Task: inverse folding
């Protein structure tokens, strides 16, 4: 068995505009729904918001330097739509574009490949006020935004993700009201929003293919991992695969197939019509499914934990009494990075990009000035060993983006939850590379071999 990943494997890290940039109202940036709704008391832990965050907007050169010290080769970041188009459409904010152009130049000057996510939840407030994803025009708004970004950055950017986790921004934002804009809608609205989000994805793919100056590699970053089989018998594996891609009213709109089947098969799952009822399915105009099913180059997926195929203890999650859990409370389930790449690659026949994986820990700077995070190092070893095993067993996996480069604004959880390879002191904005950041440096330098050491020591010191 080879103890490393393929030479072309993309090792990197990830972030999102609203979670790291700050400068929420600077240099002509327009408001987005997180700017607006974080001001409402009760939504976010401690009443926190992304107004300043990690101040990445002003400190991006320092942050790129830190990435370089960690040997990061790829950096997945998102563009703030309302920083580029303050009203969502129309007038372009040149200072906003300049920030992203400077960031891309800084990355490339430091040997780091940029991967751009067009939309990571920070929907322009002006467009939300025009109906947002409920409005059939929303896909044209998104295509216009995509064109502005592609014209500005595609001479240097090759990797594109259209949307990040529609399962979550529609599911948590409009079905269960946990994320901005904190609304609760019924099925008819949710399917209509889904259709407009998928049309937006398809039209953005068309724009990138047509106007990108460098040959583009296009995908998305979906949520929702596959289920872990009860055991490795063929029957259990089949059952887990079937459950992973099933459409169930209870999990709608968080499923995989609800979002991925229209893109790869050009149709919504049949079970959706049966379970939701024809009357609740979206209006599909001629040509819509052709737009939605534009060919993409990879299936990007954010995986933190696997789902349980069947859980005898009644847990909805893949958990058991006393199981290891991260600071988010999520069960530690490394096999998620074996089964999800395997099942997703088999079903959709595209290379899989792990666009996010990581864990939140109770990190702080210790008396010796370092941030010792052995649990995160152990987590990464276990998950990456499973990813390596999945590749050895035939799954095509193109890369791994650790979430996240910096501690940052963890949405409704605010700043308590720390996912970063780099600790951020939000009082001083001081960055401290955690032990895991130095571990990841060695993982990348050895193309993965370091994950097989049970006793990795930080050679930096
Ligand atoms: C997501 C989002 C990230 C989160 C991260 C930790 O996957 O939910 O893409 O913005 O911060 O996943 O929850």
Result:
């Amino acid at each position: 068995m080879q103890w490393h990943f393929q030479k072309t494997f993309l090792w990197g890290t990830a972030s999102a505009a609203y979670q790291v940039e700050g400068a929420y109202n600077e240099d002509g940036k327009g408001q987005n729904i997180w700017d607006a709704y974080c001001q409402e008391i009760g939504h976010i832990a401690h009443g926190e918001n992304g107004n300043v965050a990690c101040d990445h907007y002003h400190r991006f050169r320092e942050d790129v330097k830190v990435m370089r010290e960690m040997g990061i080769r790829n950096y997945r970041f998102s563009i703030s739509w309302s920083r580029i188009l303050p009203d969502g459409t129309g007038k372009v904010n040149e200072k906003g574009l300049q920030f992203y152009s400077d960031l891309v130049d800084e990355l490339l000057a430091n040997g780091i490949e940029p991967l751009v996510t067009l939309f990571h939840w920070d929907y322009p407030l002006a467009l939300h006020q025009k109906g947002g994803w409920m409005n059939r025009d929303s896909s044209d708004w998104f295509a216009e935004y995509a064109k502005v970004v592609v014209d500005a950055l595609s001479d240097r950017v090759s990797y594109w993700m259209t949307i990040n986790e529609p399962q979550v921004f529609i599911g948590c934002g409009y079905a269960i009201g946990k994320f901005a804009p904190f609304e609760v809608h019924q099925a008819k609205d949710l399917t209509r929003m889904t259709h407009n989000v998928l049309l937006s994805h398809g039209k953005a793919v068309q724009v990138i293919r047509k106007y990108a100056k460098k040959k583009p590699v296009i995908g998305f970053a979906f949520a929702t991992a596959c289920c872990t089989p009860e055991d490795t018998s063929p029957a259990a594996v089949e059952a887990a695969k079937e459950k992973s891609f099933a459409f169930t009213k209870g999990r709608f709109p968080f499923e995989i197939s609800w979002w991925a089947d229209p893109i790869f098969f050009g149709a919504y799952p049949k079970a959706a019509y049966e379970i939701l009822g024809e009357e609740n399915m979206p209006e599909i105009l001629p040509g819509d499914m052709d737009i939605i099913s534009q060919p993409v180059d990879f299936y990007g997926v954010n995986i933190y934990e696997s789902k349980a195929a069947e859980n005898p203890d009644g847990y909805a999650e893949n958990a058991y009494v006393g199981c290891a859990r991260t600071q988010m409370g999520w069960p530690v389930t490394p096999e998620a990075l074996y089964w999800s790449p395997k099942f997703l690659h088999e079903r959709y026949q595209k290379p899989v990009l792990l666009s996010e994986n990581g864990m939140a820990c109770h990190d702080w700077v210790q008396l010796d000035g370092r941030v010792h995070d052995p649990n995160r190092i152990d987590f990464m070893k276990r998950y990456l060993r499973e990813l390596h095993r999945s590749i050895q067993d035939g799954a095509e996996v193109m890369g791994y983006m650790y979430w996240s480069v910096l501690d940052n604004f963890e949405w409704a959880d605010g700043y308590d939850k720390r996912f970063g390879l780099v600790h951020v002191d939000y009082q001083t904005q001081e960055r401290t590379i955690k032990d895991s950041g130095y571990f990841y440096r060695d993982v990348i330098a050895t193309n993965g071999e370091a994950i097989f050491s049970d006793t990795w020591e930080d050679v930096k010191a």
Remarks:
- The first helix runs from residue 17 to 20.
